[in-house]
Fold this sequence. Notes:
By secondary structure, the protein is mainly beta. It is built from no helices and 14 strands.
Amino acid sequence: MALTETTAVFGGTEIELRIDELAVVSGGVEVSLGHQKLDFQKDDVELSWTVFVNGRRVATPTPFTPPTAFAQDRTTVPAGPGDEITVSVSGAGSSESLTATVPAPFEMSNVSVSSCSTPSGSVNPGESVSVTATITNANNATGDVTVTASAGDATADESITLPANGSATVEFTFAFDAPGQYEPTVEVA
């Protein structure tokens, strides 16, 4: 999913442009510029791009010619979370700009089990018990986590992707060989 996108005309050729990703990497932020020529019958056009961080020009990567199939160009710039990245694309007498903010990194300290529902009472042998947990992400970034549920000697894991400032619900089902009361736990890592 693009952070921002637009369609622009350069020399009569319609081009889709988008900032696909702003990834925090060693040495700064990797900017991923996606591009595609929308009509294969139109002339090819060479485009230049310049990257600005908080209004200051920091990079002028190699020019590109958008193909009819989607492609990406990448460059790393000195930036960090919260910085505003503007990509200015120009060619054939036209220009277009796209702007996005570098997201804060995903931190596990901002993820929690916000609710957990379990049946109460004893379990009979062979009886299934469901444990439902809601996992909440207070980060401004999407992140992958592993949810682990345990009850007695039984353990189950599920990997999920949490949306930025959102939540996801996970359900686990356990069956037990012996009767008894089993207190389930749910953890996120």
